[in-house]
Amino acid sequence: MLQKDQSSMLFLHAGPGAVDYILDHAEIEHVFVQDKKVKELLNPDCRSAQRLKTIVCFTAMTEEEKDKAGQMGIKTYSWEEFLRMGKENPSDVCAPQSSSICTIMYTSGTSGDPKGVALTHETVTTFVQGVDLLLEQFEDKMTVDDVYLSFLPLAHILDRVIEEYFFRKGASVGYYHGNLDALRDDLMELKPTFLAGVPRVFEKIHESIKKALEELNPFRRRVFDALYNYKLSWMNKGYRQKYASPLADLLAFRKVKAKLGGRLRLIVSGGAPLCTEVEEFLRVTCCAFVVQGYGLTETCGPATISYPDEMCMMGLVGCPAVFNEIRLEEVPDMGYNPLGNPPCGEICVRGKTVFSEYYKNPELTKEAIKDGWFHTGDIGEMLPNGLLKIIDRKKNLIKLSQGEYVALENLENVYGITPIVEDIWVYGDSFKSKLIAVVVLHEESAINWAYTKGHMVPFGELSSLDQLKEYVLSDLKSTAQRNKLRGFEFIKGVILETRPFDMERELVTATLKKKRNKLLSYYREEIDELYRKLTTKGV
């Protein structure tokens, strides 16, 4: 995340390549950084670090790092030293204009260089004001006594704007230790009233609670299930969760709430679709408001939001948020028509919480914002009750359950150079956190491997060998490491194929472009089985 003032400052949360690009693109001079990230700045590969004047480390840098920075002409300070300088050298506050840039947040850049999304002060303050208006519809509000547990990075727009909101209210923000597996300890320590995250976080909470239930004796488990179904039936009839079954809350669900710190009032999921099973479970058992939203960095957070206590919004991303308008635009190449039945098309957003420009990229800005509408690239379906459902992506860019974007074609180009690979189709499910792939084996390479391992079988039978699958996975991992792919871009499971993707099965076009929907349909059973095995193994 990059924050602009009279001089340039960067809060570092990106990978080495992105950091080098952003330092140069935004003409950064001053950097605020974690101690473990200092080495990325001082790495010789980070050439743009030469322009830096100051590094402020939130803890302390090693003497070696200080010496290296000094040789580069960079002054270094600890956070305490930096604060002390401010006290010793006070200056008048220079109030910004509403149209001034508040923040430039860089997108992940998985399909190219990161894009600098410019958000003005008016954009951010408008969104913050909108949160209060939204909460009034829930007959709730945040006060100075509320506490937010932050475990998303500040480079994630959802976390950023929530923190801005909490600071405005004079409320508290606590930061987790950095280990998602220890999140429960952080919840118990901080006792937050507000929790926001990507689906993977809530999936882990769901898994933890389900595991605890499995340890109960059969009688208590049956009682829990009965209370769950009883409360759910009343919620489906329109009763608010806190009135649906106070008895069930007292006997069972207050214990679930206690495991989340005991004070939770609002849970927000964003970044990717939340599995309906998990959403329902949270709505019934957490004794708190649970909502799901849809938005991008370009919309300064949620552009749509669902409502708590409205069970018809399960699995959907809700209706337009405060200060936003939503429309669907025809995508004839993909057969999506807003005037069709059901109405489908590219989601376009207009309003005061939409970004002003892509920094230093007027061409891309003009491409994304047309006639005042931001074209998201996501495909939505508008339901009869006015709710929005995300159904597709205009480009082959998907978002995994932890909220990370993945450019599928780019990964296929990278993994395609692996010697054992003749062709590859990379697949990711937005409800999953792992990528898998269907790999068409390179015949000569596969046969040579088989002979060295003593497998004297025809080429067509090699795809069933588990040992070969492990070898292909290791080869793909080596390719990923050589190309410096990020962890979530690594292939975690493979389906081996000896027959090329062909037009006979309608898996490719006449120009040999992959028909992803057809591939998904063709390999659906094997994909489901592979994901089941990965979940069982805990890979």
From TrEMBL:
Biological process according to GO: cutin biosynthetic process; wax biosynthetic process
Organism: Turnera subulata
InterPro entries: AMP-binding_CS, AMP-dep_synth/lig_dom, ANL_N_sf
Residues of the AMP-dependent synthetase/ligase domain: 10-359
Keywords, in A-Z order: Ligase
Stated name of the protein: Long-chain-fatty-acid--CoA ligase 2 (Long-chain acyl-CoA synthetase 2) (Fatty acid activator 2)
Gene Ontology cellular component list: endoplasmic reticulum; membrane
Single GO molecular function: long-chain fatty acid-CoA ligase activity
One Pfam family from the record: AMP-binding
